[in-house]
Amino acid sequence: MGSFLTKEQLQELAHAEDLSESPIPTQMISNGEFSPVPQTQAQAQVEERLKSLADRWSRSQGLDRRKFLKTASGMAAAFIAMNQVYGSVFNVSVAEAQDADAALERAASLADQFIFDAQVHFIKDDSPEGSNPANMLGIRRFASGYLNSALKESPMVLEDLKFQNFVKEVFFDSDTDIAILSGAPSDKVENWFLTNDQMNEARRIVNEACGSKRLMSHAVFTPGQPGWLEEVDRVIEEVKPDSWKGYTTGDPNGPSDYRWRLDDEALVYPAYEKMVKSGIKNICIHKGLLPMGAEAQMPGVTEYAGVDDVGKAAKDWPELNFIIYHCAYNVLLPTDKHKEALEERGYVEWASDLAAIPEKFGVSNVYAEIGSSFGISAVMLPRFCAGMMGALIKGMGEDNVFWGTDAVWYGSPQWQIEALRRIEIPEDLQKKFGYAPLGAADGRVKNKILGLNLARHYGLDVAKAEAACAGDQLAAAKKEYMAAGADRSNLAYGFVNNKKI
Question: 429 CB contacts (<8 Å, ≥6 apart)?
């Protein structure tokens, strides 16, 4: 798998595939863009309680623990264990864990909920980072072998880079309907995660194989790099991406010569003009998620990772939508200081600053995507996660918060979908800060966040999109997969820190 971590950092980490069999990660997983913190004592407690609960309830269902934890009842048991350790934040009943039929009935009732994921990625095995066509061969192998025999091409000569597994985890083992394939740049072209052309090719092959629009794609733009404006022109003309992706920190690999600000009039505004004219107006910007000790590794990076450049750019360019990825979350390990800020002021570092921009600058074109930030905080400190969601929705409005998972790094996104369906803002935080409840799993607020908000911004007619997905070749293949006894892996594919806190 390609990585943005240094060799020194990687030596201290382990692969997430070696985690426990829990359907929900019991320690922080890094997608490769930051160094994960060790498992906390509370997370270790969740892991042990889940094993105990699973041993008890698996026997009553005639399953071993591993098989039980792959079921809907096993997922419920994981949330029960989290509530026992962290306090009641997730809506889950013991009946779901004890009774397979009760768990399956709930899962079936939510299976048709429209899920649109703003950020997904490929997994790579033992190949140069984004520099060869092996990525496309993995896609073609999936397409020709599972969906559309007409797509068979020349014999495979490179290793399958687990794209089959990506499709299994994202589309077969979760309720995800549509997703946007994302990438990341580097100062060195050969180290791009995926090139703009590769993302475009992936989109084409998957959608042709499925017979419907299941995959969208970003095009990465890189202000300051040689020929970057010409690449914007080329992408508009040839690639026609669904939206743009930018990293103001320049290169997630490390120190970059091409850091930039969203409000740099001389450098970036000419690109905005091109984007407006092209009609491709959704600009997705990576913010936050700095590794601990980032300034020591990448001096000066903090200045470019925050959100103080968002307001002016959004005000100057009301025709564009500035979608801030990870909601600029920058609290990998909440300290007592962070927890006090949440409890006393309802403040989450950088995420609350983002939420304040619409009112502060009088703009309505700034949005928060919660990929990685939601998943990380949900397994680190659920109450903190709930408070973050309350702050984002209060400041930005329920129409302006978008779903994203950063799958497939954290395995199937189903556990993240279930976490959002089940999470609720504690009543004391609601009363103290005026947060509205998140409501039912398929209620207004969660339906908007999980898919309807993104659909609006990408011009999708949800009813037509749902009908297309329900009748395509992927849906037919998924029915066969489910009938054969779906086997969710419960694996994650990033990096973990095996030390203890």
Answer: 346, 383, 386, 387, 390, 435
Q: Are 406 and 364 in contact (CB under 8 A)?
A: no
Distance CA 180, CA 336 (A): 36
41 by Cβ neighbours in 10 Å (0-12 / 13-18 / 19+) ranks as exposed
| DSSP 8-state assignment for residue 168 | I
The DSSP call for residue 186 is: -
H or E segment at 368?
strand 366-369
Token pair, residue 160, equals 């399958």
Q: One-letter amino acid identity for 246?
A: G
d(CA 240, CA 233): 10
Q: What is the pTM of this model?
A: 0.89
User: 424 is written with which tokens?
Assistant: 């609720």
Q: Please state the φ and ψ torsions of residue 411, each to the nearest 5 degrees.
A: 80, -160
pLDDT digits over 273-315, tens only?
A: 999 999 999 999 999 988 777 788 888 889 999 999 999 999 9
Q: Which residues of 313-323 are buried (b: 16+ CB within 10 A; e: fewer)?
A: bbbebeebbbb
Provide, for the chain, the percentages of residues in helix, strand and coil under a 3-state DSSP scheme, each rounded to the nearest 5.
50, 10, 40
| 311-363 residue pLDDT tens | 999 999 999 999 999 999 998 778 899 999 999 999 999 999 999 999 999 99
**Residues in the chain, total:** 501
Write the single-letter amino acid at 191.
Answer: N
Instruction: List the alpha helices (DSSP H) in 397-461.
Output: 414-422, 427-433, 444-447, 453-457
Q: Are 47 and 22 in contact (CB under 8 A)?
A: yes
Parallel/antiparallel/unpaired status of strands 243-247 and 282-286: parallel
Helices 382-396 and 336-345 cross at an angle (nearest 10°) of: 40
DSSP structural state of residue 173: S
Instruction: Tell me how far apart the alpha carbons of residues 180 and 207 are, in angstroms, rounded to a whole number.
Output: 12
DSSP 8-state secondary structure symbol assigned to residue 423? B
Task: Give per-residue pLDDT as tens, 411-455.
Answer: 789 999 999 999 999 999 999 999 999 999 999 999 999 999 999
**Cα angle, residue 265 at apex, residues 264 and 270 outer, rounded to 5°:** 110
Give 180's strand partners.
216
Question: Which position has the token pair 């090719």?
Answer: 201
- Sorted by where each starts, the structural domains of the chain and their CATH numbers stand as 7-111 (no CATH), 116-478 (3.20.20.140)
Name the phi and psi angles at 217, rounded to 5. Answer: -150, 150
Closest by CA to 379, choosing from 411, 355, 342, is 411
CA dihedral 423, 428, 431, 433 (to 10 degrees): -80
Q: Are strands 366-369 and 321-325 parallel, antiparallel or unpaired?
A: parallel
Query: What is the predicted pLDDT for the residue at 137?
Result: 45
Angle at 337 between CA 333 and CA 340, to 5 degrees: 110
